[in-house]
Amino acid sequence: MKNKRVVFVLILFLAAGCVSTFAQSGVYRFAGNLRSYKKVDNVVEVRLDNAKVRIAYLKGVGFRIRYSFTGKFGPMLSYATVEDMPPKENIKIEKNVSALLLKAGDEILRIQRSPFRITYESADGDQFMKDSFGAGHQGDKICHMVQRDQDEVYYGLGERPYQMNRAGATFTLWNTDHGGYLSGSTDPLYQSYPFYIGLANNKAYGVFYNNSYKTTFDFGGQLKTHIGYYSEGGELCYYVIYGPGIKEVLQKYTRLTGRAPLPPKWALGYQQSRYSYYPAEELKLIARQFRARKIPCDVLYLDIDYMHGYRDFTWNKNFFPHPTKMLSELKKEGFKVVTIIDPGIKKDSTYSVYNSGLEKNLYVKYPNGTNYTGVVWPGKVAFPDFSKNETDTWWGNLVYNWEQKGVSGVWLDMNEPSVFGGKTMPDIVLFNNDGHETSHLQMHNIYGLLEAKATYNGMMRHEPNKRPFILTRAGFSGTQRYAAMWTGDNVARWQDVGLTMPMVMAEGLAGEPFDGFDIGGFGGSPTGELYMRFLQIGVLMPFCRTHSSKGTVEQQPWDYGHMYTFINTKLIRFRYKILPDLYTAFYEHTQTGSPIIRPLVWDFQNDPSTYNINDQFMLGDHLMAAPVIHQGENNRTLYLPKGEWYGFFNDSTYSGGREITVPAPIRAVDTYNKIYTHPLQGLPLFVQAGSVIPMQEVQQYIGQKHITSMTLRVYNGASAKSELYEDDGHTQDYRHGQYRLTTFMTKSDNDHLDIDLKRDGTYTGGVSTFDVKVIGLHHAPQSTTVDGKSVDAHYDSDTGILEFKISADANSIAIQK
Ligand code: MIG
Q: Would the CB of 342 count as within 6 Å of ligand 1?
């Protein structure tokens, strides 16, 4: 009897062994049927034939589903998520004949037992993320397959040279240095965000796969009726994040992966870069030209030629003999200088940075324990292993000491990581990961994130009340917590003008709001027209910088002849005027995760005609831009969403819910500088009726003037909410209430226009007065009162604008029409 049992068990064991041998040898094995389940500490643990699943619900985020195909769960290696994770909420388990229901609040995971399949169900009974084949693996490779609804659109994965809607296409997440990328075909690119938003019938949900391995997302490019997630390794761990608004999805997603902190305010100013400005005299000449021409500029960049033989944290003394003096001279003129830093450290026994990293054993390794060597700009280099705590400290100190010499921020390039020859490191390279050794395969996509984190931590450790400025090329979900980004090496081509908006908007929908592109194109030489069209978009972007490569024409804003110099100057000045609005939008991001530049679907999700618009965007809450992206065009046809709108530069009114065509001339002025249209008319910009847009006077750099008054442009005709955010612009005090957030509520009908003002926060350094300009009144109003007292208001019957001054402490404005 006993023996029989042993034999039987042995046979079973061998059979199981066979199955797993087959599974190893090339076929995908899916999870199988549900066998049992239990709940431990708010986590539901399910045993399946071929896997284990752990399901939790994170407060304010959604369900998290983790699979293990080995029977074991390792520690959660999570680089993407915030340190203080939201707590797990209780999950209620309900059984019925066909399914198991896991309920958290009013959200449900509906689980079919045989085979095991998960479907998400919202309170309204809408179903999303329906497992088709569900979860499976082949050896270390994992996959997750859900049903694809043919009407659904998909946003996400961050910046890709592609339309925002990913439906019908396949993408790979493997950070890659691919300059000169082509619209619609280049993939992968510099960054990886394993997160997307699905939208159908005005309902949106998000899915985040918390795994850094090389991954392919198939949105129906290969299999039409599935969405496929295929990863080379790591854990299958995903979060289902319900809307129904895209706004809620992003709010929850950024609760999980973090938000961008406010940058120093100067980082929102115009920035000028080139590969490379040198020697010091040239940099100073550029600086002088900006000031002499009264073209505002806050930041100048030094590209790799400032270094001594491309060694990080060194100066080429021939080109820059007195760097500290130069930097302090520039600072006096209001210029901040940002220097590039590459991750590869030159292997040179006389170079102290290399030596200290060697002594402390901080570089990535081959399997035999020797340091990996790659070739990049400096020649042979070693790569810091940012997965080690000690490297974080070492690097952070280097960056801090570097900034102490007068540098205002750093620009992290080549951190995909990019290596000459093989494009990147081989997969066998090892990372220490604080004792849990990992391979390049796992660390590749987060190399840039970890470098940005070490840089940020270094600055914060030494100067905890200062706001760091870091720009990075490579990134992963969560990088927004540390750095701004740009879209890498675009080219002076019209297709690249078209790519600017969908790339920056997709980045915003992946949680990174602080993004921009090389104005003018990095490669190639733009014509005046092309540069101007780039700039018209650029001055409305969160990160606004001209940058260009060696061997291309000079690309300062004044390099395209008289007429373009005039228009470009006006465009850059305009950015400084609307800075309060941009800054307010940035603050909003810190509170809700909202992007700064938003696709129209963000505000008009109930209007499907907005779902596939790639060449228009909202800036903040009320401005909408429809830039020209084609050569030779003098008009722009655009979709104006529902509602009443004003042309920003001509104050004409338009009714939305339809397509309109407006002039957007190339030659907005004649060559003798005689204006024959508004110089900014080439940029179609609209504003929603009911909104209040704060504007300020032009400064040559942020903080040049002590600004005591702002203009409020109030657009008559509808009711709306607007905001103005103010703080000191450079410390962390805003996190402790040192800001002033003014909320304007307009209410408008035929007889009245009322504006209520409310303030929040303790900051006292904001402006003390507002110049109110009410636009769109058809005749002089009967009365204008502020806090119940009538004020001296001037109505201009030519422009239809009513003007008066109020104190920034005012509580209410009442206009009787
Ligand atoms: O191999 O530092 O994207 O902005 O000017 C090229 C030189 C390296 C690529 C960056 C670009 C930068 C350039 N870098």
A: no
Q: Distance between CA atoms of 618 and 476, rounded to whole angstroms? A: 25
Cα–Cα separations (whole angstroms), residue 36 to 98, 114, 130, 779: 15, 12, 21, 75
Check if 340 has its Cβ closer than 6 Å to any atom of ligand 1: yes
- The distance between the two most distant Cα atoms of the chain, rounded to a whole number of Å, is 107
Do you find a cis peptide bond into 279, omega within 30 degrees of 0?
yes
CA separation for the pair 700, 150 (Å, rounded):
51
Please give the Cα distance from 297 to 284 (Å, whole number).
13
DSSP 3: H
Atom of ligand 1 nearest to the CA of 522: 4
What is the reported pTM? 0.96
Residue type, 773: K
What distance in angstroms lies between residue 487's CA and the mean position of ligand 1's atoms?
12
Q: Residue 660 class from Cβ within 10 Å (0-12 exposed, 13-18 middle, 19+ buried)?
A: middle
Report residue 273: phi and psi, to 5°: -140, 160
Tell me the C-alpha distance between 557 and 622, whole Å: 28
Tokens of 768: 């003390």
What is the set of active-site residues?
413, 416, 489
The CB of 488 under 6 Å from ligand 1? The reply is yes
Residue 483: predicted pLDDT: 98
Would the CB of 275 count as within 6 Å of ligand 1? yes
* Residue pair 457/396 in contact by the 8 Å Cβ criterion: yes
For residues 11-47, one letter each, b for 16 or more C-beta atoms within 10 angstroms of the residue's C-beta and e for the rest, the string is eeeeeeeeeeeebeeeeebbbbebeebeeeeeebbbb
Check if 416 has its Cβ closer than 6 Å to any atom of ligand 1: no
Top mutation candidate among 274, 413, 415 for ligand 1, by most atoms within 8 Å of CB: 413
User: Which residue among 274, 415, 489 is best mutated to probe the pocket of ligand 1, counting the most ligand atoms within 8 A of its Cβ?
Assistant: 489
* Distance set, CA 733 to CA 82, 728, 730 (Å): 21, 8, 9
> Residue with structure tokens 């003798």?
672
Q: Do 502 and 537 meet the contact criterion of CB atoms below 8 Å apart?
A: no
Top mutation candidate among 340, 473, 549 for ligand 1, by most atoms within 8 Å of CB: 340
Instruction: List, run by run, the mean pLDDT of 10-residue segments along the chain (817 residues).
Output: 40 39 70 96 97 98 98 88 95 92 97 97 96 97 97 96 98 98 97 97 97 98 97 97 98 98 98 98 98 98 98 98 98 98 98 98 97 98 98 98 97 98 94 94 98 98 98 98 98 98 98 98 98 98 98 97 94 98 98 98 98 98 98 97 97 97 87 70 97 98 97 97 98 98 97 98 98 97 97 96 98 97
Question: Is any atom of ligand 1 closer than 6 Å to the C-beta of 474?
Answer: no
Phi and psi at residue 282, in whole multiples of 5°?
Answer: -65, -45
In whole angstroms, give the CA distance from residue 301 to residue 313.
15
Tokens of 467: 């706001």
Ligand 1 atom showing the smallest separation from residue 488 Cα:
3
Token output for 115: 């085979």
